[in-house]
Amino acid sequence: MAEHVRYNRNRREFLSDCFCGMGTLAFASMAAAGQARAARFNPLAPKAPHHDAKAKAFIFLFQAGGPSHLETFDPKPLLNKLHGQKRPAEFGAVEYQNVNSESRILGTKRTFARHGKSGLEVSDLLPHQAAIADDLCVLRSMHGDMVVHSAAQYQMMTGRVIPGFPAIGSWLAYGLGSEADNLPAYVVMPDPAGAPEAGQPMYTNGFLPAVYQPALFRAGDKPVLNLDLPAGISPDRRRKTMDLLRAINEANLAAEDSEFAARMSAYDTAFKMQTEAKAIFDLSREPQETLDLYGVGKPLTDDYGRRCLLARRLVERGVRYVCVVAGGGGGETEWDAHSDIERNHWRMASLTDRPTAALVTDLKRRGLLDSTVVLWGGEFGRSPQSERSQGRDHHSTGFSMWLAGGGFKGGMAYGATDGIGLKAVEKPVHFRDLHATLLHQMGLHQDQLSYLHQGRRERLTEVHGTVLKEILA
Predict the structure, then answer these.
(1) What is the torsional sign of CA 382, 384, 390, 394?
(2) What is the rounded average pLDDT for all residues in the chain?
(3) CB–CB of 142/9 below 8 Å?
(4) What angle do CA 190, 431, 56 make, to 5 degrees?
(5) Quick one: fold of 47-225+284-471?
(6) CA atoms of 59 and 310, how far apart (whole Å)
(7) How confident is the model at residue 223 (pLDDT cuts 50, 70, 90)?
(8) Is the confidence at residue 242, as pLDDT, over 90?
(9) Domain locations in the chain as residue ranges
(10) pTM
């Protein structure tokens, strides 16, 4: 007969066991309270993702104006064969701003070759990006809904074709917080030539609390003004002042006053940048070999090279999202090649190609590329038909963007446009699909990342986007 197990316990054993259990509960309660307090007084405190993340940082190299897929990553030999002819009817029609039924097919002067072990085809316009072909995942079947710059830029950045909605950088800061203690979570570095047509509203936090708005860094040697402490004020004295203000503010902060919390967070970050972040902007600390890699100090590449290098330094220190803008102000200062595709794209490629490839190379050799998504592209592509004889019009029904790092497969082309690059016909990728996939790689589910606004649960993808699992490593 089996021996009976003794269940009776004396009072001392009972109290001892209860103490251990109560201690665990107390610790859990204290930890939860600490997290709640951190979230209340620091909305940018790091947050757990919805699922295992492949990447923790994101750099968008935004090519404002719309680079031509036909001159960069989508070879179309048929274009040159049809040069000067009307578009064949079997390809259908699309809506343009200026191109019409009388416009003729415009061939390309660019040549394409296979590069790397993968044999990915890249144009001779981008020799430096061709050298990193095995790291690139080219989406050749991108498409959007708008053919005007502003609306297309809004959709690319925010998922909507009208202003007032949060940009992806704000969504990432809202969903994941920041690992940078002395820097903003979300940084935009505009082109010194001017703003793209959509302007600052395309980078906005929209209806998300103000703490998730971007920090705009200027071009040049001083990206942030007024980083120096006032004359006669020591860092220790400034710290004591900030600690006193924080204590007073926290004692009076209403639980739901998100604007006040955002203001507190902004002041605290500004102080930390005054005392700790100046070194991040000092590129003289970089080896000369790295400066040369990015083209810093060279007439054509100095500006964009500095901003790409700074993007690496920012994500290296925990910044969640950085947008580096190439082009702005319209005309020849961006990729908007209405008049002369060759002249315009040669200029823009000369400014950006070397720094772009340098960023991917530098992240990779530092072991950062696996955890950092790099996205390159514009709000649309350019038309197969000519405008003003040598230019190309806006084109949203089929164009190219590329991804690198962050768990994406390298050395591949995904999807395809038709024979003249008019429409995405194989595995089409809408902006919402791109957004859903980017969120997925950052550990966020497009449906769970939502915000209640005017009675509706809003999200980046508006309606459900498809995660592109075929391009994930």
Answers:
(1) negative
(2) 89
(3) no
(4) 65
(5) Alkaline Phosphatase, subunit A (3.40.720)
(6) 11
(7) confident
(8) no
(9) 47-225+284-471
(10) 0.87
